[in-house]
Design brief:
The chain is α+β, with helices and mostly antiparallel strands. 20% of the residues lie in helices and 39% in strands. A 5-stranded antiparallel beta sheet has the order 1-3-4-5-2.
Amino acid sequence: MLAGETQIRVRYAETDRMGLLHHANYLVYFEQARTDLLRDEGKTYKDLEDAGYLLVITKVEVKYKSPAYYDDLLTIRTTVTRTSPVRLEHKYEVFGPAGKLLAEGSSTLACVGRDGKIQAMPGWLADAK
């Protein structure tokens, strides 16, 4: 399976009044981790979009286990768990200081063309397991 890790430090602007990472920012971090995983394969979202392949989120889930705080250095482990000719599924694990598991998540992306209709992904991406 295709997998990788991204490190992100929690910025002050991403926290709430309690100093906790705001729950919505986990989705932003997941997107960064997917982008980094693609870049590790020598590609970018820009490459895909320029070639007419757009990846849209059709489902996303997050299970929060423990909070992250301002200035924590987080590691997001991203794994491609399933591919099909038109869909790509990822699993995320967010680790905080001392390797503590803070959150788990998943996402499903579908490939569409500029017209918004489902289309097959490039072969190299559909085979990214």
